[in-house]
Amino acid sequence: MARKLILDCDTGTDDAVAIMLAALHPELDLVAVTTVNGNVEVQYCTDNTLRVLDHIGRSEVPVHEGLRRPLVRPDFPVPRNAAVNPNSNIHGRELPLPPATSRKQGQGAVEFLVETYRSTTEEIALVPVGPLSNIAAAIAIEPRMVDAVPEVVIMGGGNVKGNATPSAEFNIWADPEAAAAVLAAGFRRITLVPLDATHQALVSREQCRALAALGTPAGEAAAALIDRRITGYDATQPMAVRESAPVHDALCVAYLVQREVLDVHRLHVDVETAGALTVGRTVIDAYFRGGKEPNCDVALGADAAVFGDFLLRTLAR
């Protein structure tokens, strides 16, 4: 039986690839996509999501639009470091796909999450790959939701790497209070997929050509989107491996099907919400110095070959 999941995303280029994988893999059943303010303002995330699903022939998957700002901070969607934020070069507001003909659902993302997990008799994994605003709001409304979710796989954070600031990864930095609340909520299983792992599963231009050669709508779209990511990384990140780029969010979907794609360790993770220089940093206690019980599985490594093969096999459909 296919594994059910809800994907919560701020749809830019890597989210789009994640959506395609979740919607097309035969072992996954994409129940819905919820959107959140992040890479771009939430209305563009929603439109991009609809474009992706229409393009690959999965327009029946419902899309619920979520929060337009973080839970506490008033300075979004114009981040304090917007002038140097590489996301503007890598994502853009509108994905280069045909305009959507499908429409978002009338019910908002937070309400959908609360009602779905209140009523479900099935196990539905939750995969947030953007800021955690929707998830934190939902568990604040319905704390029992943490017992209904069998597994949460989060793209976010970094042990050594940051990308929004020198110390913080974008998804966590964009709503650090939400991230802190989700990590402390008591979900029975959380996997955190930080930059340390995603930057070990790079996709190259050569692999993009192989994706395009599949001749499928998903393969061709993924090739174009990842190629755009590579161009953006090459232009803005001098320390990046040239002619390749991470596809962060897609790695989380791959992990649901192929656990061996990630090297995970049971650790305690906190989120810094106060420090001016370190706000949004995930404090990963990799050496057990904090005296706190581990609260999530943290991916500190990834297998690029497994991930690349997963992309090709799934997007051939």
Helices and strands in order, then pairings?
Layout: E1 3-9, H1 13-24, E2 28-35, H2 42-55, E3 63-65, H3 87-90, H4 109-119, E4 124-128, H5 133-141, H6 145-148, E5 152-155, H7 170-174, H8 176-183, E6 190-193, H9 195-198, E7 203-204, H10 205-213, H11 217-236, E8 244-245, H12 248-257, E9 262-267, E10 269-271, E11 282-284, E12 296-302, H13 304-315
Helix pairs in contact: 1-2, 1-11, 1-12, 4-5, 5-8, 10-11
Describe this structure in words.
With 317 residues, the protein is of the alpha/beta class. The chain has a single domain, classed as Ribonucleoside hydrolase-like (Inosine-uridine Nucleoside N-ribohydrolase, Chain A), CATH 3.90.245. The protein contains 13 helices and 12 strands. The strands form 4 sheets. The chain has a 4-stranded parallel beta sheet with strand order 3-2-1-4, with helices on both faces. Helix 2 links the parallel strand 2 and strand 3. Helix 10 packs antiparallel against helix 11.
